[in-house]
């Protein structure tokens, strides 16, 4: 045999795969179906967005960035969404823990209720909240008597955004809790830690990533909300409402630059989401 | 030390009823049973992490049935170690110290001593991710013992280990129990672990305790067919007793003067069945002509199935005996069983 014989070269030359069999030259139709569909999906999402992002001139973008109304509305969008995420974190975490750890009668119903805000048409959400917070409802009267106003206020916006964002937080964190073996908590308690001590020292350090991801999901969902907000609070204007207003009042050209800036913000948010998503650690055994 | 009275656990698919257990102080007690017998449920009832639907559990005379887990002073070591993945070895072991009122120097000294005893001092600062199963189980033991529990529960602590670590941890458990003098309650499905470690045992099947007593007693005198099979008696056969004889199918065994009221089975260990080429007649031995049906190679030992009349028995021989006797399938031989090797159930 040739002293310079190389196995890899031999395999390559004779078009053999690792099993020493002839490689199949033709591809399965499934390969082409997957390829076609994947390209279609990515194009379908990207094409309109790329078009919109590239249509406004740099000058328009620059001008818009200097427009205090636009800046204020984007900032309002970000901080109301952020507040919705923080509220979801505070009230949603113990609830997600309960759903992950306990089985109780009617649990499936409660889980479906959590998902309701995802399914209901957005204006309906706005109408429902307004109905509760209005002057004709005892709750609305009570809230107004202690100085809480929903209609046309930042409080109203945050309420709506929390309503639509909460399911995303609860579902994400619930999955995170479920991934933590309950035995770790049992051991902690057998060593003397109370339930809250166990949560702080074991559960939270192991679940904080999923909480962060849940907050980003909630935030992302909240930032995109329009239909419910426009009913509860047209003013102060969050970014989607401002885009809508510019579109109806001045047309496409004036609404596009604002939209572009909003898209950049959302994109940044989602890149962050991908970076902090839990990476499954490889176990040693 | 641990007294369980009339413990009841009801689940839609499974129930444990009227479980009574009495584990003495400083004892190594083994709760044995096949998978799904309800062993872990009893353990969870003792630690307080599972439900209890009736009965009482007392530890050291104190009723702990409704106490939260952190107030019970019971340590637990799980099969999968359940180490805190976000903490280092040392942080795992010292996790519980802050909840106990010992002075910090005493606690530190005790933890050091435990780590020396268990041979894990050199890995104290490591993360737990890349340790071997044996090391992980030692850490879990040190963590549980660091807070001076009155009872240590062990939930199949050897099952997840590789065979070489299993023997090692088994020795560690035996040594720890001897040196520390605290009560150990271990759950397992492996009778050989009970023989090696345990002093007393209870055998659980379908939520009921079939037999309780010293390990040696249960091993040599099983009371039910289930226990007999569980402790490795291969030949458990229904029998009809008449005076000093037991009829099994068409065979009649002489059982001497053993009491047979209320018994309906005989059990014979596979290693107590002798196979001979000639009929050897001795006063206290039952001898039957039989035929070898099958020889299964188990490595050092050989499992031989023999048919006497219409009944099939299982005997165990060493490879040497098999060669010496020149046994093979379809050979006609004699089977001999001493009276004293026959157990009545």
Cα-to-Cα separation, first versus last residue of chain A: 43 Å
Strand residue percentage of chain B: 35-45%
Q: Which superfamily, in CATH terms, is the homologous superfamily of the largest domain in chain B?
A: P-loop containing nucleotide triphosphate hydrolases
CATH homologous superfamily designation of the largest domain in chain A: MetI-like
What value does the average pLDDT of chain A take?
A: 87
Q: Please provide the ordered H/E string of secondary-structure elements of chain A.
A: HHHHHHHHHHHHH
Number of strands of chain A: 0
Q: Biggest sheet of chain A, open or closed, and with what strands and sense?
A: none
Number of domains of chain A: 2
CATH architecture of the largest domain in chain A: Orthogonal Bundle
CATH architecture call of the largest domain in chain B = 3-Layer(aba) Sandwich
Distance between the termini of chain B: 31 Å
Describe this protein's structure:
With 285 residues, chain A is mainly alpha-helical. Chain A folds into two domains: 7-46, no CATH class; 64-276, Orthogonal Bundle (MetI-like fold), CATH 1.10.3720. Chain A contains 13 helices and no strands. In chain A, helix 3 packs across helix 13 (252-276). Chain A is globular, with a radius of gyration of 26 Å. The model of chain A is unreliable at 281-285 (pLDDT under 50). Chain B is of the alpha+beta class. Chain B has two domains: 2-226, Rossmann fold (3-Layer(aba) Sandwich); 233-344, OB fold (Dihydrolipoamide Acetyltransferase, E2P) (Beta Barrel). Helices cover 25% and strands 35% of the residues of chain B. Chain B has helices at 39-47, 89-93, 104-118, 133-145, 163-180, 191-197, 215-220, 225-230, 319-325; strands spanning 2-10, 15-23, 28-32, 54-59, 62-63, 74-78, 151-155, 183-188, 200-205, 208-214, 235-238, 240-242, 245-248, 251-254, 265-268, 274-276, 285-297, 301-308, 311-318, 332-338, 342-344. In chain B, the strands form five sheets. Chain B has a six-stranded mixed β-sheet with strand order 6-7-8-3-9-10, sandwiched between helices. Chain B has a five-stranded antiparallel β-sheet with strand order 16-20-17-18-19. In chain B, strands 2-1-4-5 form a four-stranded antiparallel β-sheet, with helices on one face. In chain B, a hairpin with a 2-residue loop joins strand 9 (200-205) and strand 10. The radius of gyration of chain B is 24 Å and the shape is elongated.
